[in-house]
Design brief:
CATH superfamily: Glycosidases
Distance between the termini: 26 Å
Helix content: 25-40%
Order of helices and strands: HEHEHHEHHEHEHEHEEEEHEEEHEH
Strand order of the largest sheet: 1-2-3-4-5-6-7-14
Number of helices: 12
Shape: globular
Largest sheet: 8 strands, parallel, barrel
Structural class: alpha/beta
CATH topology: TIM Barrel
């Protein structure tokens, strides 16, 4: 096992070194790959994180993705799609330095904001497909109401098609943003079970999710027939067996979905009083919880329910979960902790681009190659995370199991060289 660990780390180091000599965006090989590589871009990342779509382009990440999911568009209490932040979406101007094409926005142009940058990104990367992600953790409160009846489903989908696909933005000429989005990603968190506090939840959500997916598929296909193109429909899907059982007809929904992305992270976190893994491939030996969560358990649960393996896309984290005040010694794993570790943007979580520097600050990197996870520990503070070696192992798992590809949450956690995205691309060539 130690020999395998050394080989895995050596291969990951070699893969990371390839970043310096990787193909230019125009030459990037994975645009022809049979695997999907989905990266989430967060609408709000342009603020405190100072992460613009220009960085997705300049880092080389865009050339190595097949899909970019723009997160998020909420479902309102009126049962329609809306913008969570029109300023970010189509109003804020970008400077030369922060524009994908290097030319800043000017007064009087049809639209600005992230949507205009997405259009520029697609011009640079013609094979990249851009999807609007609906819902998310804080935007799913009213999905259940909107999916309740045939009429409410038709209303919701029609509003989404109008706003995001036909590009009919409020207060602007009709169709001003047409052609920017190539489909819809359903991030209903979660049908039939609790998500964010205050979400409407019904037992009927399980059936209604299928019916909502069917309605999206029907309206997207009608629009596609008129435009002579295909619009993608995807969904973000849970790892927990209880949430799968409560909210999804696993053998039916993939009739309507191009693929589904599985939550391969947040298995454990600082809402718990002891350290643990957040994204292991398999349940580690000595894990205190039985049953426990893992990527493989999630994949197996969906396959057992009838999901086609080539439509399952494994989610990968570009961040870590951290605890501080850890006692018990050893490697720090499965030990009691005082609370969440400090983070740049919030307690208990940290971007990989920050975590990668911790070994130089006294942290030791630990690995469990059988379980497929890594962590950092300095005797007091513990971080569970995925580094290039862990991601490479997961891409090998994706290939071995015949899955459809990888999804990454989220692109702003990567470094300026897009090291993690390049590693995933190299693994899923």
């Amino acid at each position: 096992m130690r020999g395998f660990t050394r080989r895995l780390v050596a291969v990951a180091a070699a893969a990371t070194a390839v970043v310096a000599t990787a193909p230019t965006p125009a030459q990037a090989h994975n645009s022809n790959s049979s695997y999907v590589k989905v990266g989430y871009f967060t609408q709000w990342g342009i603020y405190g994180r100072d992460f613009q779509l220009a960085k997705v382009q300049k880092s080389g990440a865009a050339a190595r993705l097949t899909h970019l999911n723009y997160a998020f568009g909420p479902v309102t209490a009126d049962g329609v799609c809306a913008s969570a932040d029109p300023w970010a979406d189509w109003q804020t101007p970008f400077s030369d330095a922060n524009s994908v094409d290097g030319a800043g926005d000017v007064a009087g142009q049809p639209i600005a904001g992230n949507l205009n940058q997405l259009a520029e990104l697609k011009k640079k990367n013609p094979r990249l497909r851009v999807l609007i992600s609906l819902g998310g953790w804080t935007g799913s409160a009213y999905f259940s109401d909107a999916a309740l009846t045939d009429a409410s489903r038709k209303k919701l989908v029609a509003s989404c098609v109008s706003l995001w696909l036909k590009g009919d933005l409020p207060g602007l000429p009709a169709g001003v943003a047409a052609g920017i989005f190539d489909g819809v990603d359903l991030d209903w968190e979660w049908p039939g079970s609790d998500g964010n506090a205050g979400n409407v939840v019904r037992p009927e959500d399980k059936r209604n999710f299928t019916l909502l997916a069917a309605e999206f598929r029907a309206q997207l296909d009608r629009l596609g027939k008129a435009n002579r193109r295909h619009y993608d429909l995807t969904a973000f899907l849970p790892a927990a067996p209880a949430k799968i059982a409560a909210g999804f007809e696993t053998g039916k929904i993939f009739k309507y979905l191009d693929f589904g992305t599985l939550q391969g992270y947040d298995f454990h976190g600082t809402w718990e009083p002891r350290t643990n893994q957040q994204s292991a491939l398999r349940v580690p030996g000595g894990a205190p919880d039985n049953p426990d969560f893992s990527a493989e358990n999630a994949v197996n649960a969906w396959l057992a329910g009838g999901a086609p393996k080539r439509k399952l896309v494994l989610g990968l984290p570009y961040y870590g979960q951290g605890w501080t005040g850890v006692t018990g010694g050893g490697s720090g794993l499965f030990q009691p902790a005082a609370g969440p570790a400090p983070g740049v943007f919030g307690a208990g979580t940290e971007d990989w681009k920050t975590l990668k520097n911790l070994p130089a600050q006294g942290y030791t990197v630990h690995r469990d190659p059988r379980a497929g996870h890594a962590w950092l520990f300095d005797g007091n503070t513990f971080w569970t995370y995925d580094d290039p070696a862990a991601l490479l192992q997961k891409t090998l798992y994706i290939r071995m199991r015949g899955l459809g590809g990888a999804m990454m949450w989220s692109l702003d956690g990567d470094d300026e060289n897009a090291t993690l995205t390049r590693t995933v691309s190299l693994g899923l060539f």
